[in-house]
Specification:
alpha/beta, seven-stranded parallel β-sheet, three-stranded mixed β-sheet, about 40% helix
């Protein structure tokens, strides 16, 4: 079968593509494990790290939300779709119409293209904890109302409603995963308010000093890149009836404070590395970050077999192994 | 100022139009009470009861979701919009694409037309308790997750997300009201599963026998036509900052069982009238109705000044007065 990965050249998408290539098979909507003949990567441009040379890999670079593009990505051979392509939170807030076009209308086009196929393909949709916001209970669960306070979060919440209703109608076989903050992200710090959560680990391990703009007690609800890729694959493998009346699930994660992150960094890499983090508060970042939900109960996800990381030290060690070639600057 | 009422020829819309004509003024987004120069009624066709002859009243019949129609309804004079037009639940379920076109895309077109105006108009959006569904807590509140189990409910939930995000961005000044089941509806029984809740009062009062397809213990979460019109007007009058971080609110209502409805009917109209209701269960209707949420806490709405009916007898008496010309068949 063919597997489509939108946003497949991005940070998470490309890891998912590599995991699919390595695994070589996926459970189809018939319930059987089927070998993957082709992985079609759709993204706006090529990945930061080139893909391996693999005859199963096809790439299509361009805007999937334009005109008829979605219909050209999905065909009768499409057995599974991982829909990760999105305008990220900062950009969706700055350019509202672009966010709506890609995150809402683009998602609908992908679902509609799937709906036209005789064999209802499985679709795993990347949603986000950004669907939560505003006045929230101390501990969130799957029955907490979605009251997003960003356009990105609103568009993801609408995407979830589409995935649920299209699935209920039998048009698709969808699954929507609410992703925690992903730590450790490789690359450079960016304008995202969550950037610090990766930067305070990533930069020190590469010998660079870094500022933490929030207090040591700040908690982050997080999941590692390895574990989120495992969750994507697990979501596709699950039988339709494992989802019950909702196709959405908040993925498990762990709540780790900045203090705990640095303690784990000290344990893994030594005091000298952790000492490269300085604390200079940034009121702008603080205001955003202190409004985030940091504590969740994710019983539903756990019963369904989704798993979070077990120890934060493992998250750091996996980053060193996967992104720093196994070494760090002491 | 001009007031636009989409769905203004419908059962609730036409009552709202009459209430606006009678009141003659409405609070504009500037916070001042302004007189209404024009009420523009947009609907697919004329109302069942002709509107009064009033120079302030303009009508535009046609599909507001088509091409540029929304832009022709909203102008710089538009000070308030009541957006009630929708494909109802049964039809949205039977014709998915029509529901999406009117209930989701049409709503977005109305919001976009308003966004283009320099003076951000107030928009009151009619949502529904159909946004709730599936596995729900025993008593619902404003923080209960929206997990609709119909396309209508999904489209209303997406409409609420749009109203919220457009308002947060300052594009519009929106308010979304989740309406309970409206009882007593005038007219004929229809295919809606909730049809019995009005029929078991309406038909006996007109001398007709009627079947109740659900048990006497069945509860209904309801609001009268008079009270919902009062809530629409109150929603438009409220200052923007009364809404806090959410522009959605579940309206107050009352939970009344079939048994309690018939007791009130006996009190108001006598035993002979109530005896016109017979009980023959309909498993199809039962299955739908028993899945509905019947108990809510609506503290947020009450703090904001929204009010439910006080006594169910009043609901029946108002129906006799408003829809039966003050008399009934004993």
């Amino acid at each position: 079968m063919q597997v489509l990965v939108t946003g497949g050249a991005g940070f998470l998408g490309s890891r998912l593509v590599n995991a699919l290539l390595a695994r070589g098979s996926i459970v189809s909507s018939s319930g059987d494990e089927e070998s993957i003949d082709e992985i079609l990567v759709a993204d706006i441009g090529p990945p930061a790290q080139p893909f391996p040379d693999d005859p199963r890999l096809k790439t299509r670079y361009g805007d999937f939300s334009e005109a008829d593009a979605a219909n050209q990505l999905v065909s009768k051979n499409t057995g599974a779709v991982f829909h990760l392509a999105a305008i990220v939170s900062g950009e969706a807030e700055a350019d509202f119409d672009k966010g709506m076009r890609i995150n809402l209308e683009g998602t609908k086009k992908i679902l509609d293209a799937c709906r036209q196929q005789a064999d209802c393909p499985r679709i795993v949709f990347a949603s986000s904890v950004a669907v939560y916001g505003g006045d929230m209970p101390d501990v969130l669960d799957d029955m907490t109302a979605l009251t997003p306070q960003t356009s990105y979060g609103s568009q993801k919440a609408m995407g979830e409603l589409l995935v649920n209703d299209y699935s209920r109608k039998g048009f698709i076989d969808g699954r929507a995963l609410r992703l925690p903050t992903i730590v450790v992200r490789p690359g450079k710090p960016n304008a995202a308010a969550s950037s610090f959560a990766s930067a305070i680990l990533r930069e020190p391990l590469q010998g660079q000093e870094v500022n933490c703009p929030v207090s040591r007690k700040t908690g982050v609800w997080l999941l590692s890149p390895r574990q989120v890729v495992a969750c994507f694959l697990h979501a596709a493998d699950l039988a339709s009836d494992a989802w019950g009346q909702s196709r959405s699930v908040a993925l498990p994660g762990m709540t780790v404070t900045v203090e705990e992150m640095l303690a784990a960094l000290t344990k893994v890499a030594g005091e000298g590395v952790a000492a490269r983090v300085r604390f200079e508060p940034d009121p702008f970042i603080e205001k955003i970050v202190y409004g985030w939900a940091t504590r969740f109960t994710t019983e539903r996800a756990e019963v369904m077999g989704f798993r979070a990381d077990q120890r934060f030290e493992d998250v750091i060690e996996a980053f060193i192994e996967d992104d720093l070639g196994g070494t760090f600057v002491e």
